[in-house]
Amino acid sequence: MLLEKIDAAEFRQTLGCFATGVTVVTTVAEDGSDVGLTVNSFNSLSLEPPLVLWSLGVGSPLLKAFEHASHFAVNVLSEDQVEISQRFALRAVDKFSDLEVRPGLGGASLIVDCTAWLECRRRSHQVYGDHVLFIGEVERMATTAKRPLLYLHGRYATTGERVA
């Protein structure tokens, strides 16, 4: 059976119908510098053991840092952190300049005032298509009462009031 080729733009638009949380994943590069980027491909994988996953494009200049790091942190952004999301989505800026952070496990930065934090030991990484899938085991986590920032239809969104 021959499958119809999926149009990449249509595929991206269809995936945009799925609301995701917005995170910033951080680690420490081999030279000791802080590294991070905005990620909405974050997801839970397993409760026992506690595993999470996220992906990074194979052409990313940050790929080497995450491949060699022992730990990474997932900072779940709150609805008032759109500027942080936008900052970490850029490539050529000092993303950590004037940003209040605290050190996490393995030195990965934890961004202050997030909705939640997951500090992970990198368990594996594997290339799939045009991305590298990272799996981490959660070693420590914390939450706040802040509402999360969402991304839907190519724009930021908030949860508003709870429906159930």
Short description:
The protein has a 7-stranded antiparallel beta sheet. Strands 1-11-12 form a 3-stranded antiparallel beta sheet, with no helix packed on it. Helix content is 13%, strand content 43%.
Can you summarize the main beta sheet? 7 strands, antiparallel
Mean pLDDT: 93
How many domains, as an integer? 1
Main sheet strand line-up: 3-2-6-9-10-5-4
Rg, nearest Å: 16 Å
Counted by DSSP, the helix tally is: 3
Shape: globular
Would you state the CATH class? Answer: Mainly Beta
Low-confidence stretches: none
> Any idea what the CATH architecture is?
Roll
SSE layout and pairings?
Blueprint: H1 8-15, E1 20-21, E2 23-28, E3 34-39, E4 43-46, E5 51-57, H2 63-68, E6 71-76, H3 82-89, E7 101-103, E8 109-111, E9 116-128, E10 131-143, E11 149-152, E12 155-158
Antiparallel strand pairs: 1-11, 2-3, 2-6, 4-5, 5-10, 6-9, 7-8, 9-10, 11-12
Characterization of this structure:
It is a single chain. The longest helix has 8 residues, at 8-15. This protein is mostly beta strands and 164 residues long. A hairpin with a 2-residue loop joins strand 11 and strand 12 (155-158). It has helices at residues 8-15, 63-68, 82-89; strands at 20-21, 23-28, 34-39, 43-46, 51-57, 71-76, 101-103, 109-111, 116-128, 131-143, 149-152, 155-158. It is globular. The termini are far apart. The model has no long low-confidence stretch (mean pLDDT 93). It has a single domain (22-144), classed as Pnp Oxidase, Chain A (Roll). The protein has a seven-stranded antiparallel beta sheet. The chain is built from three helices and twelve strands, in the order H-E-E-E-E-E-H-E-H-E-E-E-E-E-E.
